[in-house]
Queue: 2 jobs
Job 1
Amino acid sequence: MTPQHPRTVTKAVIPAAGLGTRFLPATKATPKEMLPVVDKPAIQYVVEESVRAGLDDVLVITGRNKAALEDHFDHHWELEQALEAKGDQFRLARVRESADIKVHFVRQGQPLGLGHAVHVAKEHVGDHPFAVLLGDDLIDGRDHLLEEMVAVREERGGSVIALMEVPPESVGLYGCAAVDGREGDVVRVTGLVEKPDPAEAPSNLAVIGRYVLDPSVFEVLEQTPPGRGGEIQLTDALQTLAGSSEPGGGVHGVVFSGRRYDTGDRLDYLKAVVRLGLDHQELGKDFGQWLDEFVQERLAPEKAFQR
Ligand code: G1P
């Protein structure tokens, strides 16, 4: 008899080996995941989201040039001692926040695509369902997408992906899903295509960067040939799983309508900084006041000049 896969999801994989070309030259020597969103690097939000959802075994898949990521999730003894000596407990606590999370690292070796990056996690993950969080997709901390996806996996098995409605002309930037049987915000995924021509897209439901995957995805990835852009696509492996009635097969989608920021895109990055800056505990009030004045100035420059 085949053993049942353990059902509880405790592991998260964060692929962070990309070159960040959309954000050059800022990302020439700094990994895009380390770009600050207000006062924390983007990837710290993603790691914290994972821990909040109860997934505190985090594996980051890195590439060359990513040493800053490892340093960020480690203790910085000299800095901690200096802050301790000054009695700056507030900053000391903030510096320690990221070091207190247990983050593992493995290198992808060759940049062969998202599917390949996920496969690199096989040994660490073993025979357990696990989550994948893309390092440049930031989900607002007030929205509980990952928790809901884990609950859907626990209830229905198989794999679960996050979907979001996008304008039809933008669907070619994403993986796109064909779905049926909607119950609340949960759908059954019947097909997937990576970055389709918008005229041929099966829907306007885009795959966003959160997945809860059955471990059978590893075997499927091993059989998945390079797809769009010559890369091994996670979307293609999920397309196989969506049509599979084998144990571990089947894909559901959670249609998300909350706040998501693509911090790898310059315009979305600016929006994320403004939104999260406004919500920031220490800076939000002052920043909000300044922003109101700034907007008024933009709307009626002559009045602002008289002030
Ligand atoms: C990747 C996935 C794509 C997904 C997107 C979400 O694409 O391949 O299916 O829709 O992330 O951000 P990338 O943005 O890395 O090209």
Note: The chain has a mean pLDDT of 92.
Job 2
Amino acid sequence: MTPLHLPTAYFIAGILYLTMPVAVWLMLRKQHAPSNTLWCLGGLSFGLSLIFLGMRDTWPEALTYGVAIWLLVLGPLLRVNALRHELQKPIPLTWLLILSLVFIAVYGVFHGVLNNASMRFIWSSLGAAAAFGWLAFLAREVYRRDQSISARWIFMFYLALAVVLALRVPSVLLGLSEPTAMTSDPLSTLLIFMGVVTSIVGNIGFLGMFIERMNREALESAKVQARQEEATRLSDQIAQLDRRRSVGEIAASLAHELSQPLTNIYLIADRMELTLQQRQDESLNKYFADLNRNTQKAGDILGRIRTFIQSKNTLFERVELSQVITDVSALIHDLAYNESVDLQVSLPPQGLAVWADPVQLSQIFMNVLRNAIQATQGQASRRLLIRVWREGEMAHITLTDNGPGLPAEALSQVGTAFFTTKTEGLGVGLSISKSIAQQHGGSLSIGNSPSGGAVVELQLPVVD
Ligand code: ADP
């Protein structure tokens, strides 16, 4: 087998190290990431060092020993800093420069002062192995943090390169190879081979790390957008339902309240008609007929309003309570956050589902949470706790706040339509929530919690 011509091999590896990082840098330059520039500079530095090493027989010693060995360690150190930038813990460049200069100063002592080829060789091998090992270790950190497959490849190949470099030390100590980079023994051949492969894997891996990150970010922003759209849709639905229900509640109440006086008018008119008939006075008969017809008509209209309000278009489905609470928490998040309210949720670990219309269920939560946030105004620290548990066939959900609670005189009326203690209040939120809970085969009640504050308890039948 023809032995490897080392100067040519070094030259080829050097050219690879010079060209590939530049190509990667050009592809990623729009990212404006310092790590990209550092990675590229590291590659250039290492590439130059390989070319200088290959020129040992022709170029001046200062270049092919001193500068070459300095660049050999500076290259991976610059790449170390590139990965540290990726990990958001960059090292000042001056430190790296000092580290590489200390390294080359010691090398200079072995080379120029002591003229000890073995020590010089061992020192440079160990220095380069340590720098590549560090690089591998950081790539592993990136892999662990981002689950990046590309970083994993970088880790594996740089670690292998570090191991092969370090193996040169026992090999020289045991007299198995010459203490020079220019002998074509099996280890040096393996090293050149590893160097070439690592250059390819390292650069493609670095590019891959960026692409993976861009994909992750795109996925994340798509998820956030989808969540926002979902939250807006739900909040629109709730607001619409709120308005419809409020109008419905008012109309229902009006229908109920008006039916009594209307019946009275009807009865009074009837009695007057009877009295006039007894007096044999028929002059007002036409008016009584009109009066009766119109009262009847008004009664019919009220009846139709009642029927219309009672007709429901509820869409029942299996609803995980944790999901409704997550959705409503997302909707209420801004309000709770702006008002510095701490919302805690305690759910059963195995989950709990009910048979419900998710939008209407969210409407209950929104009403109750809004009330609770308003009630805690003025408290030093504002807290809401949602607890969910199962008791037999019923799911229990309590929402406790640390507001002032309900005064005794309010306790008997709270939850009936139009009862409000707020100047701007309509007093329909709780009564709507109660009727939704009843429509779902459950109940809703409000009272005071033993720890102070109000507690709303919602019970709904469980679905397995
Ligand atoms: P509104 O919020 O328009 O007043 P609601 O039906 O939602 O209508 O609430 C009715 C009343 O119940 C409120 O005005 C308030 O007096 C009382 N209330 C509701 N929730 C709470 C709470 N968490 N703490 C104290 N009082 C409450």
Note: The chain has a mean pLDDT of 89.
